[in-house]
Amino acid sequence: xxxxxxxxxxxxxxxxxxxxxxxxxxxxxxxxxxxxxxxxxxxxxxxxxxxxxxxxxxxxxxxxxxxxxxxxxxxxxxxxxxxxxxxxxxxxxxxxxxxxxxxxxxxxxxxxxxxxxxxxxxxxxxxxxxxxxxxxxxxxxxxxxxxxxxxxxxxxxxxxxxxxxxxxxxxxxxxxxxxxxxxxxxxxxxxxxxxxxxxxxxxxxxxxxxxxxxxxxxxxxxxxxxx
Length: 227
Description:
- The protein is mainly β.
- It has helices at about 5-35, 90; strands at about 35-45, 50, 55-65, 65-70, 95-105, 110-120, 125-135, 140-145, 150-160, 170-175, 190, 205-215.
- It contains two helices and twelve strands.
- It has a ten-stranded antiparallel beta sheet.
- It starts with a helix and ends in an 11-residue tail after the last strand.
């Protein structure tokens, strides 16, 4: 009986912990679902070894649950379609996943709950998502996503004026630079040099969107998402 007691205590604790994580995800999702659509003005910076990409002003369009586009003033879409979930609402769209409580961590002095989302159906682009949720603000501060092809990427989110909507002031996408592919129609100058250039830093590429304004729930037509 003494040997069974620790196991019984563990079994008693795990469901409660898992339910807490599920409730937290639902609270975050409920906040994000208040946003039916938005248009936003932002500045985009691309930091990828060998590519000289200037900072540019962009427009960002979103419509619930998974329509998302980043567009330059000349009309060119500057983020690839499909695969990469570039906003939190699309990551939490529907409920066809299992929520697993993975404990907690402290980052930059903020206590975060770690939650893993496991898709219930096979064949999707995403096989595992890990969310780092700020339970006090009910927002996602960081996420990592593993795709079916074995690749992965990370999103870092900073909040400010639009926290009540669950919308970040700044999003940084972090990915393996070697996997970076430009969307069709987008070209940048490559760094030139006679000697072979060795990537500096951690070998990661980064795309940062810094939002200046959002126009929320005023309607976004289908044309915004068509090339």
